[in-house]
Write a structure and sequence with these properties.
A hairpin with a 7-residue loop joins β7 and β8. It contains 6 helices and 8 strands; from the N terminus they run ααββαβββαβααββ. It is of the alpha+beta class and about 270 residues long. It is globular and about 70 Å long. A 4-stranded mixed β-sheet has the order 1-4-3-5.
Length: about 270
Amino acid sequence: MTQNLPDDAHKRLSEMRGSGGQRKLFTSDLSVNEFLLVKEAGFEPAGLVVGSSIYHIGFQMAAWTKNQEMEVLTQALYHARELAMTRMEEEARELGADGIVGVRLTSKRMEWDTNLAEFVAIGTAVYRADGTGAQWRVGGNPFTSDLSGQDFWTLLKAGYRPVGLVMGNCVYHIAIQTIGQFFKSIGQNVEMTNFTQGLYDSRELAMERMQAEAEAVHAEGIVGVDLHEGSYGWSPSVIEFFVIGTAIVPIRADHHIQTPQLVLSVND
């Protein structure tokens, strides 16, 4: 289903895919080295695929002396990213791709309305050159991965493959110090336990949700995990933790690891 894609996207993707099995042109954000390694791994680039969503971030009240998750905001940011990812995957399906590599998720607040934020997912759709791509898809959908071309090649050579990009997030309100706590800490080395616990809990919730997504696709593990933190113009005591990584599964029993080579850079 591609009803969420604009007409211009359908036209661009149709021109790239061509007809009669003859693809006309591909676009890619892969570097030269990444492009060549993806080809050496048995894949061909189909085209650059993009998905976006401009989302209105809602409002939620919180008790200023209480650590708590802002569930309304958590759900809003997750759904916005999910919409962007879904549309990127829809573009990949239109190209007849078997997967997407080098996926990047970005976000920015809109200048004309600080309650709006745009979420963008972008990556390079690829397909198996030998026509065996169906076995690389997950539930009939292209796999997604934020691995670079080099990491993708290394992973396949070692006997693993990506099954999907998995993510988790948590928007959390950190309790503000009471007057008593403030005076007790003046001039002392002392742990701020409410701050510690709040940030610890929020990271754990985000990690737990990412792991649940990996378990849902029967992954053996997650590689390239990256944890971000940020705010979208909320109160200084409200922060989001967002974690993302690539879930992988083995494709053979033996895992031959390539011997690392020493490379000496000649750059300053």
